Amino acid sequence: MTTMTVLEERDRLGVRPGKLFIDGKWVDAGGGSTWEQVNPATNEVVTTFAVASARDVDEAVKAARRAFDEGPWPRMNAKDRKAILQRLVSLIDDHADELNRLQTLENGMPIAFSSMSVVSSSMAAGIFDHHAGWIDKITGSTYPSYEPAPTGADVQVMTFREPVGVVAAIIPWNAPMMLFAQKVAPALATGCTVVLKPSEYAVLTSLRLSELIAEAGVPDGVFNMVPGPGDPTGDALINHPGIDKVTFTGSRGVGQRILQASSNRITRVTLELGGKSPSIVFEDAQSVAGAAMVAMGMVSMGVSGQGCVCQTRSLVQRSVYDEFLEAASSLTKAVSYGDPFDPSTTSAAIINQRQLDRVLGFIERAPTEGARLVVGGGRPGGDLDKGNFVNPTLFADVDQTMSVARDEVFGPVLVAMPFEDEDDALRIANDTEYGLGAGVYTTNIAKGMRMARAIRAGTVGINEYTVMPNAPFGGFKASGLGREGGWDSIEAFTETKAVILGLAG
């Protein structure tokens, strides 16, 4: 293991204690509370940041409300608003290395992975660029009049898409830059104002991106940032009467609380929650080993399975089941834990002690429920025990009665489940409360399309598995409500207004 450089990177990046960003100003928390930002690879304190109280949240929402009701942003012409977001894209690109390193510093994501397009500053810039492109293309419709108005005059019916208002955006810690962009870009593009709450476990990139938003020329009050945990910060935000929409990515439990809070005021919501995504590997897959490496790679590399869309259930046709297990097992030999700023490190630590205990609990319980441990289990040991590392783990002969197959583990654990035929695979794939993603591996495209149409999930890959910023993303069932990405994002942050124009002579 290499020598850890977490604190050296902190000093090199000039990380300072974080404040709140409200109405264009950096301010201290009213109650004086702070939170320690800890890197999970070493459990060293990187910095502290202010925790927004309910009163601070109220100030942020009021600032966003004034900016929406009285400020220029919702009324700005498309060309000018687009130019500001394009300046932000350039600023993100200019500070790419800094942002990627801040992400590694806050959540322990290996720098090699933090710099990959799927979670890096380039993805964040791409999302802002994509939504900036929609600004001058948000149009309404016209409808032929069905009959004259009661006055006898002819009428013209037209629709406009107007910004939904003040948006509460709440993001998790596992891909903070990408998810910052996924929430904030469509909100700003459509003319909304924003109060963002990043996860208390990953604040550094949100702090820096807030500075860049101000530098790009977004008017005061349009974007506000209030870090802190669910209690008090998150609860104050989701229950605030000045919020018109909540967009949230995170756990199912918090999503349910947001739904309950929103029902009191009929607040609009977009929820991207958990997943238990299957990869379905048929015997005619182009490469069984390749499919195994994709699934095992998702749970063992990068953020070590701490992603909602990871393929954590591998459904494998029985004739190639052993081949799959062998290939998946062999990939674990390539896993390298240690200094997250070492380019050779492949895998992250578990984000905190609570989640570490939860993951280890699943691993310990699985054999008692009948699962067969193929490889992994437990912790690496030695100096790595200073961090929250867990060995990449593969269980075989798993069925849907086992907790490791039903529940979202959010750690480096893959389960393999044999199936007999297409119908059997579909039955197992859909036997879950979740429906976020799925992958199908077959050279028979007709079969692949049949499976894709029948699987109850928001994103299904056929011989490919990725998330694209310009494609709708979201889940069926307990995996959430609504979609983000592409035109779906524009619809999610706007309201349709019908205007009926009388054409009296």
Molecular structure report:
With 505 residues, this protein is of the alpha/beta class. The protein folds into 2 domains: 280 residues, Aldehyde Dehydrogenase, Chain A, domain 1 (3-Layer(aba) Sandwich); 194 residues, Aldehyde Dehydrogenase, Chain A, domain 2 (3-Layer(aba) Sandwich). The protein contains 17 helices and 22 strands. The strands form 6 sheets. Strands 14-15-16-13-12-18-19 form a 7-stranded mixed β-sheet, with helices on both faces. Helix 14 links the parallel strand 15 and strand 16. Helix 3 packs antiparallel against helix 6. The chain is globular. The chain starts with 5 loop residues before the first helix and ends with a strand. The model has no long low-confidence stretch (mean pLDDT 95).
The number of distinct helices, counting runs of at least 4 residues, comes to 17
Question: Could you estimate the helical fraction of the residues in percent?
Answer: 25-40%
The proportion of strand residues reads: 15-25%
Going by helix content, strand content and strand pairing, the class is: alpha/beta
Average pLDDT? 95
* CATH topology (level 3) name of the largest domain: Aldehyde Dehydrogenase, Chain A, domain 1
Q: What is Rg?
A: 24 Å
Q: Regarding CATH, which class of the largest domain?
A: Alpha Beta
Spatial order of strands in the largest sheet: 14-15-16-13-12-18-19
Number of domains: 2
Number of strands: 22
- Morphology: globular
